[in-house]
Amino acid sequence: MINRINTLFPLWALLFSMAAYSLPDYFVPYKSYITPLLVAIMFFMGVTLRLEDFSRVLKKPKPIILTVILQFTIMPLAALLLSKVLGFSTELLIGMVLVGAVSGGTASNVITYLAKGDVALSITMTITSTLLSIIATPFLTLIYVGQSVPVPASAMFLSILQLVLAPVLIGVIVNYFLHRFIKRYEPYLATLSMLAIVLIIAIVVALNQGRIATIGLMSVAGIILHNLTGLSSGYWIARLMGFEHKICKTIAIEVGMQNSGLAVALAMKYFTPLSALPGAIFSVWHNISGALLAGYWSRKK
After folding, report:
1. Which residue, of 74, 137, 205, 281, has the fewest CB within 10 Å?
2. Which three-class secondary structure string do you get for the chain?
3. Which domains does the chain have, with CATH numbers?
4. For the whole model, what pTM was predicted?
């Protein structure tokens, strides 16, 4: 039952988004909950990890290195180029770059499982990019949008330490001492993470209810193209590098699916509610595209 609920994540995200758009007054008061919800998500990620997940980096370095390079080069660059070509406002451009500059999303591990990819490798990739994002995200944001608006890179660095590193490490420690207990309730932790992401999306949609109708289909198309760029480049570059199909699927999913919740939290804290909208839309879409791709790959022999 719990697994079924988890696989319907895109549906819940859509339903909550529609509810938030129709009844924004019910969600707007919870604006201050975005940061605690993200901290909870990162804690739930950490609490499912074991020390051997970190050591796997040394055992399979090549696909992990490739994924990290693609994650922090193609995704932010694609975000910038798409925003420029499609004529996005500065606020939307900031949101796009933030989505491109963050680490891989925790949902990628679930999608990798559904796609019959290498789940253990996916988890290690997510851990690696998450830890690197502490430095990479503020640096890339400064590089790509620093000429348009002031970017508080140092403050963002400290925020990511608090939002990402601290809860992940606390989660790992909790799992180390309470592993049997955590293992028993692990499926429920995934559900709680899903609920937290859905609530973040809904709050951002509610905050931007008056702006959503004005951003146009072109903006949504740009966000969709951003995700598809990550998925396709991740897969085909990995193929060109000679990796097997299972690894290529894993890399594609990891590159294309971003920690958009972190992008939303940073946008809300340092920029504007509108700059958080690309992250919210990306959160909904990348789970839909990921689920569709996983369904296709799981049926293909």
Report:
1. 74
2. CHHHHHHCHHHHHHHHHHHHHHCHHHCHHHHHHHHHHHHHHHHHHHHCCCHHHHHHHHHCHHHHHHHHHHHHHHHHHHHHHHHHHCCCCHHHHHHHHHHHHCCECCHHHHHHHHCCCCHHHHHHHHHHHHHHHHHHHHHHHHHHHCCCCCCCHHHHHHHHHHHHHHHHHHHHHHHHHCHHHHHHCHHHHHHHHHHHHHHHHHHHHHHCHHHHHHHHHHHHHHHHHHHHHHHHHHHHHHHHCCCCHHHHHHHHHHHHCECHHHHHHHHHHHCCHHHHHHHHHHHHHHHHHHHHHHHHHHHCC
3. 9-16+27-299 (1.20.1530.20)
4. 0.84
